[in-house]
């Protein structure tokens, strides 16, 4: 059924899919809101391997910040360091200063659990829990101690509506979350993240396994929720970055000829229109015009 | 298209299975697979048929519930095996209560907490070693450390059976936990769950049906054990309602002693007890499967 509906939507949605090109009128400078993340001179290691070197950037409130760059450039590594998901990898280590709303994220009395309750994450591959759709959404609120059925019902409905999934699943909330299509499952994961009312949503290539229709829906969704959340998205798709993001950070791989080691570096960071329309660095220029990567 | 125009009746492309050796190989392998399946089923079928043929006559309500086990010389129909049924249920049940939670917790430690540490590797190694210990040695072990001090009891039997079940439960639960995708754990962590929460609310439920299967395997194995009970519960001819003190009896022990006897009545009772044991295990499996299915109906 879903697939048929998706097929039917194809024609309708094709016209409203966002345009790929940046209009010349797009602002090259945008006003910056309050700072959410302040990353300064940060290097991230996996045991002895230095995955990213000397990254500095600031992420602003209610903006969508995109991380782009070729494979192995450390975009996902930086993203995962923003809510301490890297702590789960044995040997991962962060050097430098990452502040979240002024508080050092890697300070000695910071609990990774408390960090992740404020800074949620959506993964590349949709990972619904093997539970009902309802229990998937209620999972986060429940671990935060909400037991009241009425309150949970309300949260489930609100989150699913925010993720534009409510109409498709409202009649089968007690069915397994594993029975959803790829795009629906990813929106379920977004709804699950929104259910705990985070401050920031980190997205690690959320659309890379989805078709253009499902991708379009998730991009629309990002635009809709951006007024209430701050979003950082890693994407391999440059068109996606131009469609959704306010600012773009371009990462690249730096190869040391002498030791033959590779490390990720932040090449250029600025308003999306500037990065794609008027890049300052020749490597950015080469990448966004498709001559590299 | 070209071929079709020259001969309208010839098919444009040949989509049949490739001919020759490849097709033959496929057929040979399929036949061999079915053959293996049938060969595996033969002994199983023989056991069941023999059990039912020779044991069904013995089964009656009195046989299952009468609390006095008759002397070997008496014919079938006098008294029954109730004492052994009660003993088997009590002793195996208590052993399950001891071994399954401990084993599952051990597996959780190995897979979720221990990492590659010394303790985890030690536990893993010891449980492998325990798998290889003959069951009669487990009985002797409990005899020396428990029975010599506190006397025979059903509980001593449970200890011996639990020692046998523990490595099976650890090993099978561990394998099931390993199969839980890491993406699920990450999803839970990303919502701000602590490690204990992740384990309790995501990992264990996802592995539940596999863990139950492993536990059932261990229970079935323990229910049929004779050797470890000889040294730990001795044997009696009356129902012993107290699991914690005094000699007890069980179906496997009764099968053993009655089958050895020269008397026809005793032999018939042995067959009846064997059929009862298989039936109990079978019913247990089905009940556990139904309960697991109810608990995990949203996990597929």
Q: How would you sum up the global shape of chain B?
A: globular
Largest sheet of chain A: 10 strands, mixed
- Globally, the shape of chain A reads globular
SS-based class of chain B? mainly alpha
Per DSSP E runs of 2 or more residues, the count of β-strands of chain A stands at 10
Order of helices and strands of chain A: HEEEHEEHEHHHHEHEHEEHH
* Assembly context of the chains: heterodimer
Name the average pLDDT of chain B.
Answer: 91
User: Unreliable runs of chain B, pLDDT <50, ≥5 residues?
Assistant: none
The termini of chain B sit apart by 46 Å
- Main interface: chain pair and counts: A-B, 34 and 23 residues
Number of strands of chain B: 0
Describe the 3D structure:
- The complex is a heterodimer of chains A (293) and B (300).
- By secondary structure, chain A is an alpha/beta fold.
- Chain A has helices at residues 2-16, 75-81, 112-118, 133-143, 149-162, 166-169, 182-195, 212-225, 238-244, 272-277, 282-288, and strands at 35-46, 49-60, 64-68, 92-100, 103-104, 119-122, 200-204, 230-234, 247-256, 261-271.
- In chain A, strand 1 and strand 2 (49-60) form a beta hairpin.
- In chain A, helix 5 (149-162) packs across helix 7 (182-195).
- The two termini of chain A are 39 Å apart.
- Chain B has helices at residues 2-6, 21-55, 61-65, 82-113, 118-131, 135-150, 154-179, 182-190, 195-223, 227-230, 251-260, 264-295.
- Chain B has 12 helices and no strands.
- In chain B, helix 4 runs antiparallel to helix 5 and helix 6 packs across helix 7.
- Chain B is 72% helix and 0% strand.
- In chain B, 37% of the residues are buried.
- Chain B has 300 residues and is mainly α.
């Amino acid at each position: 059924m879903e697939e048929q509906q998706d097929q039917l939507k194809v024609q309708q949605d094709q016209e409203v899919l966002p345009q790929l090109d940046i209009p010349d009128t797009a602002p090259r400078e945008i006003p910056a809101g309050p700072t959410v993340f302040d990353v300064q001179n940060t290097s991230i290691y996996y045991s002895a391997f230095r995955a990213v070197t000397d990254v500095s950037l600031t992420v602003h409130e209610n903006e969508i910040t995109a991380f782009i760059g070729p494979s192995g450039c450390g975009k996902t590594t930086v993203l995962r360091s923003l809510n301490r998901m890297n702590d789960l990898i044995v040997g991962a280590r962060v050097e430098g200063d990452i502040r979240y709303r002024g508080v050092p994220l890697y300070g000695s009395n910071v609990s990774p659990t408390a960090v992740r309750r404020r800074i949620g994450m959506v993964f590349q591959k949709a990972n619904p829990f093997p539970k009902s759709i309802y229990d998937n959404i209620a999972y986060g609120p429940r671990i935060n101690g909400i037991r009241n059925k009425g309150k949970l019902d309300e949260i489930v409905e609100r989150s699913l509506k925010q993720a534009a999934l409510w109409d498709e699943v409202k009649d089968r909330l007690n069915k397994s979350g594993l029975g959803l299509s790829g795009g629906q499952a990813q929106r379920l994961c977004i709804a699950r993240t929104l259910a705990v009312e985070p401050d920031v949503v980190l997205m690690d290539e959320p659309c890379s396994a989805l078709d253009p229709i499902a991708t379009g829906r998730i991009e629309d969704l990002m635009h809709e929720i951006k007024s209430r959340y701050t979003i950082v998205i890693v994407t391999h798709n440059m068109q996606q970055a131009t469609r959704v993001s306010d600012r773009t950070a371009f990462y690249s791989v730096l190869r040391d000829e002498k030791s033959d080691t590779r490390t990720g570096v932040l090449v250029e960071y600025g308003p999306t229109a500037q990065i794609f329309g008027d890049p300052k660095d020749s490597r950015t220029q080469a990448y966004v015009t498709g001559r590299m990567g | 298209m070209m071929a079709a125009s020259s001969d309208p009746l010839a098919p444009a492309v040949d989509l049949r299975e490739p001919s020759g050796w490849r097709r033959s190989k496929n057929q040979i392998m399929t036949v061999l697979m079915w053959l293996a399946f049938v060969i595996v089923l033969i002994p199983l079928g023989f056991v069941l048929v023999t059990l039912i043929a020779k044991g069904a006559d013995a089964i009656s309500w009195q046989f299952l519930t009468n609390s006095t086990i008759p002397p070997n010389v008496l014919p079938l129909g006098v008294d029954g095996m109730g004492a052994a049924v009660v003993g088997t249920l009590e002793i195996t049940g208590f052993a399950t209560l001891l071994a399954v939670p401990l084993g599952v917790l051990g597996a959780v430690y190995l897979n979720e907490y221990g990492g590659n540490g010394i303790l985890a590797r030690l536990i893993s190694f010891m449980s492998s070693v325990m798998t290889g210990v003959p069951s009669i040695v487990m009985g002797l072990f409990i005899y020396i450390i428990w029975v010599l001090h506190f006397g025979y009891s059903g509980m001593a039997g449970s200890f011996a059976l639990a020692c046998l079940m523990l490595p099976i439960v650890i090993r099978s639960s561990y394998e099931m936990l390993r199969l839980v995708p890491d993406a699920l754990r990450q999803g839970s962590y990303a919502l701000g769950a602590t490690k204990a929460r992740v384990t309790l609310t995501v990992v264990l439920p996802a592995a539940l049906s596999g863990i139950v299967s492993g536990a059932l395997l261990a229970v079935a194995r323990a229910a049929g054990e004779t050797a470890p009970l000889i040294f730990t519960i001795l044997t009696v001819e009356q129902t012993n309602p107290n699991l914690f003190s005094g000699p007890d009896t069980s179906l496997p022990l009764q099968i053993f002693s009655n089958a050895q006897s020269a008397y026809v009545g005793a032999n018939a009772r042995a067959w009846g007890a064997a059929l009862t044991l298989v039936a109990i295990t079978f019913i247990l499996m089905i009940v556990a499967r139904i309960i697991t299915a109810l608990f995990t109906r949203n996990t597929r």
